Amino acid sequence: MLMLLSLCQSVALGSHAAAARAPAARAAVAAARPLAAGRLSRGLAQISASEAAVAAAPAGSGVRSDMRNIAIVAHVDHGKTSLVDAMLQSAQAISGSIDKDDRLMDSNDQERERGITILAKNAAIEYGGTKVNIVDTPGHADFGGEVERVLNMVDGVLLLVDAAEGPKPQTRFVLKKALEMGHRILVVVNKIDKPAARPDYVIDKTFDLFVELGASDEQTDFPIVYTSAINRQSGDEPDEVSDSMEPLLKKILDLPAPAADTAGSLQLQISNIGSDPFIGRLGIGRVRAGRVAKGQPLGLSAGPGEPVKSAKISELFVFDAMGRKAVDEASAGDIVVFSGLSEFNIGDTLVDPADPRPLDPISVEEPTMSISIGVNKSPFAGKAGKLLTSRNIRERLEKELETNVALQLKDTGDADSFQVYGRGLLHLTVLIETMRREGFELMIGCPKVIEQEIEGARCEPFELVDVELPEEYSGSVISMLGERNGNMLEMGSVSPEGIVSLQYEVPSRAMAGVKTKLMSATRGLAVMTTTFAGYKPWAGDFDKRDRGNLLSHEKGTATGHGLKNAQERGSLFAAPGDEVYENQIVGIHQRAGDLKVNVCRQKQLTNMRSAGADEKTNLSPPTPITLEEAVEYIEDSEFVEVTPAAIRMGKVGKK
User: Whose CA is closest to 161, among 128, 197, 215, 195?
Assistant: First the structure.
C-alpha cells in the first residue's frame, strides 16, 4: 500500500509539474508515465515479497530493519532545527517540553545569534521499535563540507522545503549531493501554516528540480509530508495536518534501512571529528561492515593502497536522544563515536588488521576564497586580548584544521601572517569571530578569490544570487548587480503581494558589500540568498566602491565637536568617546578619494563656551558595522582589526 500511495503521488505530482516545464521536458515526463503505470502492478506484487525478505534477512547480511539513518538538509532558515526539536518531543526522547524557540540542536553561540546551523550534529530517537539516527546539517553553501561528509553516513534524506518560498539555491546544492550518492529522498514541505503557503507550486518546483538534476525514476517518485514544525503538526495532505509528528515519523520508517554486513571485515569510515574535555579527540562515523568493540585491536588506513597503522579505541558510544550512550560493541549500520586515537583524519577507515579493506577517502570541494590572518600591529594592540602572538594564532588555526575539513592553511612571506582558505566569506568570518571570543587579537586582510586556469582560460568563482524584493526597488538592484558584471538569468513575474524575484550569476569578488547596499537600496525589504555556482571565465574589472574613506587625523578620543564637523563630510562609524588612532577608518566619505578628519578636535573653552556645551551637539547615530560587513568593505592596503572589545578598520601605510 505504501508503494501504491507513493506511485499515485508521483502521477499527481507529474500533472502539477507538467504545466511548468518546457515542451521537451513535458514530453519526456509524459513518456515516462506509461512506464510508471506498467511498474505499478509489478510493484504491488513485490511488496509482500520485499517485506518478507527484510524480515527474514540472516544475521550476518542484509539490512538493519530496526534502524534508519537520515540527514535533514535544506536551505537556510527553512526550519531544519525546529523540525528536529519537534521529532524529539513527539518521540518523547527528551524529558519535559521543548519550547518553540529552543532550537536544541543549535548549541553553538553563533548559531543561536545568527539563526543558522553551522556545525552538523547528531541525535537519535526511538519510534515503533526502530532507532532513527538524525543528523541536522548546515543550510549555507559555505559549510558544504559538513553536508558532504554527513551524507556519507546516511541512507535517506529529508529534504525540507519552505511552503511559501519553494526550492532555493542551497536546496539545489544539497539535493544534488544527495542524488549523486543515490539516496532516497523524503520531501517535507514545512511552514504549511504560513498565510502565503502555496504547496502545489512548491511541489511542482521541487519535481522540476529533481528532473533538472538528473534524478533516477525511483528518486523522482518521492513521498511527501506536510509539516508545521514550530507548531508540532504534520500530515499527508496540506489541508489535513494533525497536532502530531506521527505522519512524518511513519514516512521516515518507509525510507531504506541501512545495509548491514555484520559478518564481513570491519569498515568504519570517519566522517566527522569532535572533542571532549575529559576523553580527548573523538571520531564519528558509520560502521559499514563487520563489528567493532572497545579495546579491540584495529587498523587505521587513509584509503586503498595506503599503509595500515595499528590502533585501539578506548571508549565507544552510540547516539541517544541529544547525548551519547556508552556501549561495548557496535555492528554494521550503527553511527558511533569513539575515543582513544589521537592521529587520524576525516576520511580514514578503521579496518580489521587481518583483512584490511579501507574505503575510498571522502572528497571535499576545494576552497574558493582566501584571507590573511595575522598578529595585530595597530597602536591599540594588546589592550583587550590575551592571545596575541603568531604562535598562538598558528596553534589555533592548526587545531581548527583537525575538524574543519573545508579549511586550508598556508604560510606567507611574513612570519606574523597566515593565509587561510575557505569555502566563502561566511565560512572564514565564523572562524574569526570564534577566535575573537576566545580572546585573540587579529589583523585581517582583504579577502581574495581563488582563480583557476581551465582549458587555458582564466576563470574565477561565481555565485548564484537570488533576490526577492518589492517591484518598486527592482530597478536600482538590477543596476547595482549589472555594474558588478552580474548576468541576469531569470526575472519572475510580480506576485499579488508586489514581490518580484531576480536570479543572477555574479563573480564572487563582486559580492563584497552587496548585501549592505542592497538593504539600503530596498529599505531593508529585500531577501538575498547566494550559493556557489562554479568556475566561469574571468568577468573583467569593475569599480568595487565609488566613495572613499574618512580617516582619523590623529590618535586620541573622538569628541562630539570633532564628529559634528566630520559628519558633514560623510557617514560615520565612530561615536563620541571612542578611542581612535591615526589612519583608522572612522567613516565613509561622500565623494571619491580618502579624506583625513580630526574627530578628536576639542572645542576651545572661553568665557562664552563651557565644557558641557558638547552635550547639546546634534549628531547622527554612527553606522554599526559587523565583522562580515567590515571584511566585505575593505580593499587592498586596508585591514580589519579584530579584538574582544572592538572591530576597527584602518589604512596601511597611509601618511
Answer: 197
In this structure, the chain runs to a length of 655
CB atoms closer than 10 angstroms to residue 568: 8
What are the angstrom distances between the C-alpha of 352 and each of 271, 285, 328, 356? 18, 16, 17, 5
pLDDT in tens, 143-196: 656 666 778 888 888 888 888 888 876 677 678 778 888 888 899 998 888 888
Q: Rounded distance, CA 320 to CA 292, Å? A: 18
Give the integer Cα–Cα distance in Å for 510 and 72: 32
Grid coordinates belonging to 273: 571529528
Burial (Cβ within 10 Å: 0-12, 13-18, ≥19) of residue 250: middle
Q: Residue 49 corresponds to which cell in the numbers above?
A: 515479497
Contact 80, 137 (CB under 8 A): yes
Block residue for cell numbers 581612535: 580
Residue 480 identity (one-letter amino acid): M
Determine what percent of the chain is predicted with pLDDT higher than 70: 79
Query: Is the distance from CB of 148 to CB of 71 less than 8 angstroms?
Result: no
Instruction: For 25-58, write each residue's pLDDT tens digit.
Output: 433 443 443 333 333 333 333 333 334 333 434 4
Among candidate residues 235, 194, 180, 178, the one with its CA nearest the CA of residue 77: 194
Q: Which three cell numbers stand for residue 646?
A: 572592538
Read off the amino acid at residue 68.
R
Spatial neighbors of 237 by CB under 8 A, at least 6 apart, are 226
Query: Nine-digit cell at 10?
Result: 508521483
HEC sequence for 292-320: EECCCEEEEECCCCCCEEEEECCEEEEEE
